[in-house]
Amino acid sequence: MKSYRCEWRGPLGLISGLGIASRAYVRALRRQGVPVSVRSGSLGVNRQAQGPAKKVLICHTLPYRVHAAAEKRRYDRVILNTVWETTRIPMRWKPHMNKFDAIFVPSRHNKEALRRSGVKVPVHIVPHGVDTRQYNPGNPKLRISGAQGRFVFVSVFGFQHRKNPETLLRAYWEEFSASDPVMLVIKTSGYAAYETEAWIKARIRHYKERLRLGRQTAPVKVIGRSLAPGQLRGLYTLGNAFVLPTRGEGVGLPFLEAMASGIPVIATGWGGHMDFLNSRNSFPVSYQLRNPAISMNSPHAIARSFRSLFAEKGQLWAEAELSSLKRQMRKAYENPGLCRSKGQQARQDALKQSWNRSGQIMNRVIRELL
Fold first, then answer.
1. pLDDT digit string (tens) for 175-231?
2. Would you tell me how many other CB atoms lie within 10 Å of the CB of residue 37?
3. Are 3 and 20 a contacting pair, CB within 8 Å?
4. Are 285 and 328 in contact (CB under 8 A)?
């Protein structure tokens, strides 16, 4: 099979990680010479790819939104491109997964979760990439009042329970005081109209009050609004270390963006990001696998839970150990030279995670499936 044409259905217009990945995969396939048409978004609205007779449909969406049997009458192969964060996929997904000809996932973590959940069709790892030209150590630092002369921890995430904002804040507040020249800068966003920057800041403030820390704590800067692309890139280079004690990631694009920007990552040692994080380029945090409902029911929970997705029977995710996170943050702070060397290694490792590589892998797998 020498050639084929592809239709891509996915969230091309979103500004989230899903949107970034969808656009990047399409561009990567096109750079491989594959004629690709898309349903919507900025990459050629409703443009029909012309060329070979063999047709492939790739659905970058929820599996229950695809009528695979009907699509197979129109396409030679129907492929699901998906991602998941816990040890098992949601039960709502299961009746649909084996109806596809194949499934693309971005990490070993995802492949294991699908196999554990009873998926029998071929599952291929097609990794995410990162644009190392845009995200690089030379980007001008974002100007944050009070950050000069401090060791800056940076974190980028959606304000949801899976990202574990409460453990990040607690570890930082308990480990560092106002006398330490440090700062934590959090770039986050909510999932509903009322989850504004002010709302997020109020949730964090009330959580701090409940902790009754009894001392002046180190400063936290919360950015709960959109940043321009250049500002986001400058946020990474502002940091001395990136930190996120996530409970589960299919990939974790901010980890790749931090690495490409030349700063080391402090992260829970479980999830899709462990395909590219290691002790040479990061500070792994110890963890224990737990049912998500346990932490969701904790008085420490401060963010949207998405309980219906993540707290089903049999699902597990990683709970970062507070003491381990505190040790790794302290280690990074006390060893700026180690941070620089890990950051340099992170940059070198990120250079290997290109979207061109992703396109090459996807193209090769599609040809094998045909």
1. 999 999 999 999 999 999 999 999 999 999 999 999 999 779 999 999 999 999 999
2. 18
3. no
4. yes
Tokens of 211: 């902790």
pLDDT value at residue 14: 83
**Which residue(s) pair with 244 in the sheet?**
267
What gap in Å lies between CA 272 and CA 238, rounded to an integer? 25
CB 136 within 8 A of CB 261: yes
Contact assessment for residue 122 and residue 368, using Cβ atoms and an 8 Å cutoff: no
Tell which residue, 72, 64, 59, 62, has the closest CA to residue 22.
Answer: 59
- DSSP-derived letter for residue 49 is P
What whole-number distance in Å separates Cα of residue 269 and Cα of residue 109? 12
CA distances from 339 to 26, 294, 329, 331, 366 (A): 35, 34, 11, 9, 40
Contacts of 275 (CB under 8 A, 6+ apart): 107, 108, 109, 127, 251
CB 232 within 8 A of CB 154: no
**Residues 6 or more apart in contact with residue 65 via CB below 8 angstroms:** 59
Report the candidate in 322, 321, 317 with the shortest Cα–Cα distance to residue 305: 317
Stated pTM of the model = 0.93
